[in-house]
Design goal:
This protein has 124 residues and is mainly α. The chain has helices at residues 13-22, 30-43, 48-61, 66-79, 85-92, 96-109; strands at residues 82-84, 112-115, 118-121.
């Protein structure tokens, strides 16, 4: 069985009327219609670019604190000595701008360097 979570949503009267028009066709209740709409948004790939942009905006607005970034960088280089730059950004779950602003600090702090689009851990 799928794990679920409950929430409450507020819709405009127009949107709620559209949901009600789909009851019986797209779901048996207004809640099930809304649930199916949300699932389609996330599951069918048509909106992946929109979702990626929203996630990027969130990472830009709410970056993790330094302790979390510190832990992620240390954990990353426990199992590898180099990683592509884009994968490094994704692993840290931060905005590229934050990485570019801090990479000069991190290179010294974590003994890493960037060569040909790779982040490389210096061997001690």
């Amino acid at each position: 069985m799928t794990e679920t979570t409950r929430t409450t949503v507020t819709l405009s009267r127009i949107s709620m009327n559209q949901v009600k028009e789909l009851v019986g066709v797209f779901g048996s209740t207004p809640a099930s219609v809304i649930s199916r709409i949300v699932e389609h948004f996330f599951d069918y790939g048509r909106f992946d670019d929109v979702i990626d942009k929203m996630k990027a905006k969130r990472r830009e607005l709410f970056p993790p604190d330094d302790a979390i970034i510190n832990k992620r960088i240390k954990n990353l280089f426990k199992g590898a000595d180099k990683i592509p730059f884009d994968d490094f950004i994704n692993f840290l779950q931060v905005d590229k701008k934050l990485v570019l602003e801090n990479i000069h600090i991190w290179t010294e702090k974590y003994d890493i360097r960037i060569i040909e689009n790779l982040v490389i851990k210096d061997q001690e």
